[in-house]
């Protein structure tokens, strides 16, 4: 039953072509408050850098802002790109957030840089540190968020003993296997890389080893969603998301563009095929279509949680989509 599946939101604080980042942040707050009222479990912000239109680069700052504007909603990172940061600094940031908003902070981490090589260098991480030593970085992060150890001389303050929940995020089989070995909750990035979703979920569940934080596997999947009063209107509104992926492919700005009646004159057949693959499990439609597609996705994946990602140019359309998806997730 869909009622047994938690539902959450992933946000990138997208700026519109005709508006500021301040406007983007105001819209994120409004969406988070609506999500809280509608029963969404958590609201995640994702780290990206050097991308015009994506306002979530200072992820921990924005998490604090959203947590301060809500009451019960869990707020966190989906995720922090660990190769960009010293694990101790991440532990300090999220230890501070946990102290400010007890029991409401989640820390999802990934091993991709979320940027290109030049941006990585600008972030001032040592060049020899990267995805290859991600397991060591993850262990270091767990160390700084865990209980004090005998002889420990360096502490994350705050952070130590906070036990902020750590999730492992990924779009590869590697991440699924590492999450299983560490006994961590796992979120698969099927909202942009759906091809390996089922294999990754299988590897995670079959290889899962219980840990101090989790007795059984807990898997979430990213789901692109665009719900509207009718299928036709949803397809129209979804062209904003399609234009965003097209801009990403072409290396253009990622500011939200208004929807269009047709994408045919905007993309090549090759680009259309790529975007179709990118949005391979997208749920786009009116209320009944959305309910049916989500039920099918639940049956197919057995996911414990859906994390919904969406791009809407008009905030009213986004808030309506949040409501329609919540109604579908509650079986109405």
UniProtKB/TrEMBL annotation:
Q: What is its EC number?
A: 1.-.-.-
User: Residues in domain Luciferase-like?
Assistant: 9-300
What InterPro entries does UniProt report for this protein, alphabetically? Bact_Lucif_Oxidored, CmoO-like, Luciferase-like_dom, Luciferase-like_sf
Which enzyme class? oxidoreductase
Query: GO MF terms on file?
Result: oxidoreductase activity
Q: What keyword terms does UniProt attach to this protein? A: Oxidoreductase
One Pfam family hit: Bac_luciferase
Q: What protein family does this chain belong to?
A: To bacterial alkanal monooxygenase alpha and beta chains.
- Tell me which PANTHER family the record gives: LUCIFERASE-LIKE MONOOXYGENASE
Record's protein name:
LLM class flavin-dependent oxidoreductase
Name its species.
Gilvimarinus algae
